[in-house]
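Ops channel
N.P.: pipeline sanity check, posting one input/output pair.
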C-alpha cells in the first residue's frame, strides 16, 4: 500500500511537472545586516519629515549543479534635510534548488522569482532594526521585480543598439 502511495505521488508530480523542471526554496537566512545612526540623539530632536531612499541589488552564486545562493541586498537611507538620520543595509540570502529549466530562463528566475521570495524577509529585518534604533516603524512598499527586470533588459538592449550604431562604419 505504501508503495502504491509513493508511486501515485510521483506520478502526480510528473503530471504537474512533465519536463522535470524544479524550482524550490531550500533555506532563507540573514546573511549580513548593518545599522548606522550618524546623527545620534539629534535625529530625535528634529521634526520627523524623512526622505527615504531605497536601493536593491541581487547577486547569484552557484553552489553545485542544482543549488544556487541568491543574495538580495537592500539598502535604505533615511535623511532629515541634508543629514542622514539612519542607514540600514540587509543582505537576505536564500538557497534555491533549480533544475530542468532552460538556460535562457535562469536570469529571469534569479532576478524576479528569487528576490520576490526574499524581499518580505529583508523588509521585516529592516523594520525590526529601525524600531530597535528607536525610530518610527519603516514598512517599505512591495517591489515589482518583474517590472524592474523588464526595464533592465530594455536598457541593456538600448545600450547594445547604441554601441552597435557607434561601432558601425560611417557611410560616405
Amino acid at each position: 500500500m505504501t508503495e502504491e502511495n509513493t508511486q501515485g505521488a510521483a506520478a502526480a508530480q510528473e503530471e504537474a511537472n512533465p519536463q522535470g523542471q524544479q524550482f524550490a526554496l531550500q533555506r532563507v537566512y540573514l546573511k549580513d545586516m548593518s545599522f548606522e545612526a550618524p546623527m545620534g540623539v539629534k535625529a530625535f530632536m528634529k521634526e520627523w519629515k524623512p526622505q527615504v531612499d531605497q536601493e536593491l541589488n541581487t547577486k547569484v552564486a552557484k553552489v553545485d549543479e542544482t543549488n544556487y545562493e541568491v543574495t538580495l541586498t537592500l539598502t535604505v537611507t533615511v535623511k532629515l534635510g541634508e543629514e542622514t538620520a539612519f542607514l540600514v543595509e540587509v543582505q537576505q540570502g536564500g538557497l534555491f534548488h533549480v533544475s530542468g529549466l532552460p538556460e535562457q530562463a535562469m536570469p529571469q528566475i534569479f532576478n524576479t522569482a528569487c528576490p520576490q521570495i526574499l524581499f518580505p524577509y529583508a523588509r521585516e529585518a529592516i523594520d525590526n532594526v529601525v524600531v530597535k534604533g528607536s525610530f518610527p516603524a519603516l514598512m517599505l512598499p512591495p517591489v515589482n521585480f518583474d517590472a524592474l527586470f523588464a526595464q533592465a533588459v530594455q536598457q541593456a538592449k538600448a545600450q547594445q543598439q547604441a554601441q552597435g550604431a557607434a561601432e558601425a562604419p560611417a557611410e560616405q
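N.P.: looks fine end to end. The two ends are 81 Å apart (CA to CA).
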